[in-house]
Amino acid sequence: MNYPIIDRVLVDLGFIVIPWYGVMYIAAFVVFYLLGRLRAGPDQLMQNGAMVSDLLFYGGFGVIVGGRLGYILLYAHEQFLNEPTILFRLWEGGMSFHGGLVGVLIASFVWARLRKIPYLPVMDFVAPLVPIGIGLGRIGNFINTELPGRVTEFALGVHFPCSAVRHYNLLCVTEWESVTRHISSLYQAFAEGVVLFVVMWVFSSRPRQIGMVSGMFLICAGVIRIVTEFFREPDVGIGFILFESITFGQVLSVPVILGGIVLVLPLSRRRIGLAHNN
Q: In which element (H, E) is residue 20 found?
């Protein structure tokens, strides 16, 4: 089976062009707002929809700026030096999960400080709302034929267009590659967008100690990224970092997991101590 080719542009009226990648980001922001409204209430940290939309504005700015700058700095700095305009060509794809994460953390910190609200509770509120958006971003990668998977004989493997894998297979000079590859973008869309959302939504539905939800998100997101990266080709120009199988994205996910452990472990020990005292 061949990779399903979808036009990157959803609407092209000449004077306005709407790419699928941009639509995925807009959909992610809408989902964040709707889910946030479900969690908002007079007796909650987020008291109403206005607070959710205000936080969304800061978080959206953070994820776009952080994701793009992270991509340029981590994966495309050489191309940026030759083509500085790629910084603004967001419709072509190229957003870093780790850069976007840092951007959201910084933007949410600024918002919390301006609102005079404790930071960790804000992040506990945000964490369950973002996985679907991450998954939608991966669907945008799929439409853009980005993130080609590693070669496989698995039944779900597909033939990628040579234009998407020529950096990995110099012998691919026709329209389609002869070997089949994992559709790693859809694997990550399901794992990060569906599995992570279900885990975080259920976990956060019960009262938790402050910081526990944030920590669990970091651990789960990091683990999922490391696992799914084994089905994905390493980034062009970087290649494998360790053992001819470990990618840069996996290495970057280690501090994410450690950050989550730093948050969760003390809280877990404190809870065990309280249980013993009772």
A: helix 20-39
